[in-house]
């Protein structure tokens, strides 16, 4: 894991993916100024890695038409790692030109999903990742590159995804030169036993190149899956404020794991996230203001913090 805890640093890295994963499936388009206000609030809450956008053709994804502008603004927030999703070399060139600190590339765990999504086989995607790494090495060696296996725990097209194939794909991505490789439960099909087992295998295979757990809460197991990943040794977690994004296949269901609830779980366990929960809950306001009428999820925002819970330190007072 490139994220190395210790000293005064947090124990885990919470990587906020709402501005990318959350926004990209909404029909609504968040105005650029609203995105900036939201980023400021997320940063003020202590988030130090935010996936701010994806570099895809604006014709396909008008929500991300302002990607370069958003990256330029996010770079002004001190100490923030500005992460951008790129599906191919062209996107990577644009993201690096805009000044992203880190690129994330999704690679499908199932052949069927890969062909349906990007019209490339998995092997062709690994080759594309290799081209991106080579471009990075020459033009921007300071930029980090991660590649996460999507639908790693189950696929809406293929159904179950063989674990051997997922582990082998992670190894191929590391061999292609990525800094780390994680696993995404893109469609919310994972269970904690499976997460513990599969991340355990990935960690045995690629060691400290193991990247993030990216869980969706579509079927209510998001937090349990993150805890299982933590127990297996994962220390980077993707989540989105208010579980923004929903799921196109399950109307009304939450999308990504809710950042506020994930931070609460860790802090209540004594696992430091570096995030101020009250400020994090307050960051829901600029998000909602920029997306009137949007579905927002989360138990902590609804129930409040338990009596005696110190939101600044994340610890219950004795
Ligand atoms: Zn996702």
Task: Lay out the secondary structure.
Layout: E1 13-16, H1 18-24, H2 32-44, E2 49-54, H3 67-74, E3 81-85, H4 89-98, E4 102-108, H5 111-118, H6 122-139, E5 144-150, H7 163-175, E6 181-185, H8 192-206, E7 210-215, H9 222-232, E8 236-239, H10 259-269, H11 277-282, H12 284-290, H13 299-303, E9 309-310, E10 315-316
Parallel strand pairs: 1-2, 1-8, 2-3, 3-4, 4-5, 6-7, 7-8
Antiparallel strand pairs: 9-10
Helix pairs in contact: 2-3, 2-12, 3-4, 4-6, 7-8, 8-9
The chain binds zinc ion.
Ligands bound, unique = zinc ion
What is the CATH-assigned architecture?
Alpha-Beta Barrel
Rounded to the nearest angstrom, the radius of gyration is 18 Å
Number of strands: 10
CATH level-1 class:
Alpha Beta
Largest sheet: 8 strands, parallel
SS content category: alpha/beta
Strand order of the largest sheet: 5-4-3-2-1-8-7-6
Residues in β-strands, percent: 15-25%
Explain what the structure shows.
This protein is of the alpha/beta class and 318 residues long. It has a single domain (13-305), classed as Aldolase class I (TIM Barrel), CATH 3.20.20. Helix content is 42%, strand content 15%. The chain is built from 13 helices and ten strands. The protein has helices spanning 18-24, 32-44, 67-74, 89-98, 111-118, 122-139, 163-175, 192-206, 222-232, 259-269, 277-282, 284-290, 299-303, and strands at residues 13-16, 49-54, 81-85, 102-108, 144-150, 181-185, 210-215, 236-239, 309-310, 315-316. Strands 5-4-3-2-1-8-7-6 form an eight-stranded parallel beta sheet. A two-stranded antiparallel ribbon has the order 9-10. Helix 3 (67-74) links the parallel strand 2 and strand 3 (81-85). The protein starts with 12 loop residues before the first strand and ends with a strand. 51% of the residues are buried. The mean pLDDT is 93. The structure holds zinc ion (ZN). Zinc ion is lined by residues 21, 184, 186, 214, 216, 256.
């Amino acid at each position: 894991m490139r994220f190395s805890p210790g000293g005064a640093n947090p124990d885990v890295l919470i990587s906020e993916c709402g501005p990318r994963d959350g926004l990209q499936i909404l029909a609504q388009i968040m105005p650029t100024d609203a995105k900036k206000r939201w980023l400021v609030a997320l940063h003020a809450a202590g988030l130090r890695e935010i996936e701010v956008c994806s570099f895809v053709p604006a014709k396909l994804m008008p929500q991300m038409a302002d990607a370069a502008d958003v990256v330029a603004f996010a770079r002004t927030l001190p100490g923030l790692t500005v992460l951008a999703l790129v599906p191919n070399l062209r996107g990577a060139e644009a993201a690096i030109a805009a000044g992203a600190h880190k690129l994330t590339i999704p690679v499908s765990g199932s052949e069927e999903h890969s062909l349906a999504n990007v019209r490339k086989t998995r092997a062709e995607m690994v080759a594309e990742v290799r081209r991106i790494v080579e471009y990075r090495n020459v033009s921007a060696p300071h930029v980090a590159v991660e590649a996460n296996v999507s639908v790693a725990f189950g696929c809406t097209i293929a159904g179950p995804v063989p674990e051997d194939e997922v582990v082998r794909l992670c190894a191929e991505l590391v061999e292609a030169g990525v800094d780390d490789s994680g696993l995404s439960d893109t469609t919310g099909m994972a269970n904690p036993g499976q997460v513990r087992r599969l991340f355990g295998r990935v960690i045995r295979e690629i060691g400290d190149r193991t990247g993030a757990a990216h869980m969706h809460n579509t079927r209510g197991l998001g937090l349990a899956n993150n805890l299982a990943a933590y127990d297996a040794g994962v220390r980077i977690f993707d989540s989105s404020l208010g579980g923004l994004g929903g799921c196109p296949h399950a109307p009304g269901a939450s999308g990504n794991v809710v950042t506020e609830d994930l931070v609460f779980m860790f802090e209540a366990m004594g696992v430091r996230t570096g995030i101020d929960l009250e400020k994090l809950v307050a960051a829901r306001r600029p998000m909602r203001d920029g997306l009137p009428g949007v579905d927002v999820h989360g138990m902590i925002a609804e129930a409040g913090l338990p009596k005696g819970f110190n939101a600044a330190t994340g610890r219950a007072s004795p």
